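ok so i was messing around last nite and threw this chain in just to see what happens. nothing serious, just curious
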Amino acid sequence: MKLPSRDVMARNAEEKTSPSRIRMPRRVVEKPLRQVTKRLLMALGVLALTTLIVYADRDGYNDNSDSTLDFLDCAYYATVTLSTTGYGDIVPYSDSARLINILVITPLRVMFLIILVGTTLEVLTERTREEWRLNRWRSTLREHTVVVGFGTKGRSAIQTLCATGLRKEQIVIVDPSTKVIETANGDGFVGVVGDATRSDVLLRAEVQKARQIVIATQRDDTAVLVALTARQLNKGAKIVAAVREEENAPLLRQSGADAVITSASAAGRLLGLSVLSPSAGTVMEDLIQQGSGLDLVERPVIKAEVGKNVRETDDLVVSVLRGHRLLGYDDPAASPLQLTDRVITIVRAAAPVTPLSTPPE
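result:
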């Protein structure tokens, strides 16, 4: 088996050794550093306000050391009071000072503590909410699609799946790069960070409940191991994989893949066709780009088409799938059409699809 020299999926050693985890798509309202800075400024503002209030009524306080308060003493008293330390060396003794402590200093103390503890509470709340979302996602996810690899091939496959009507909530992406999964989250997809050759990573993606699995790794040996692991976990899922070298395609089929696409040879054939006939190359490129121009669509035969010749249908039929046999449109056995048949037709795309953003390499 011929292996490339470098696995592009393993972008760096740190990401390869990091534990796998599920990342749900979410909208970031504000950067964490900005939130911490804002809370710190608010806490300092409360401290400064308390110091000014104490300084304005400093005659109502008593300092055990010299009985008088300067600005530093007021700042010291505000600090130990707001932090609930309260050493007792500076105390309010006048009625006005005690009343201000009750009505003003105490609420400021509570506000100060809320500001300081707020970050921790927010983190705990966010973790609880994220855990709830994750449990709900696991309980409702059924018949979904797992895409291994979010590079050029994986993104193109997802774009085609979405063009056919598959919702983003029904797609789970597995990739070892945290940055790539963050990009996927930004596009609205659930991602799992980890090595897809490991069964525990695929189990996090709920591969055992998946309807179809797309393997779009950068190395052929990685694709083989992923196919073996995925087939072991899910016997009935449809597995489609891409390989670089055509000589590795049989091995990938033996590993459990139902369909294998050789990316290098497919691109080479399209290049050769475009040289011989640029127009034919344009048509082929249009056909494989789902959601724009002309599309190849597989659909069941409707009742009105039963008994008809393939040329008598409204759509342009290129092949007929009968059981496990794929019949060409010119095959005499393809006509008449049967109710259990499925036809592969060329139709006009309904609407264009907005392309996904380019991931960082």
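not much to say yet. Residues 1-17, 352-361 have pLDDT under 50 and may be disordered.
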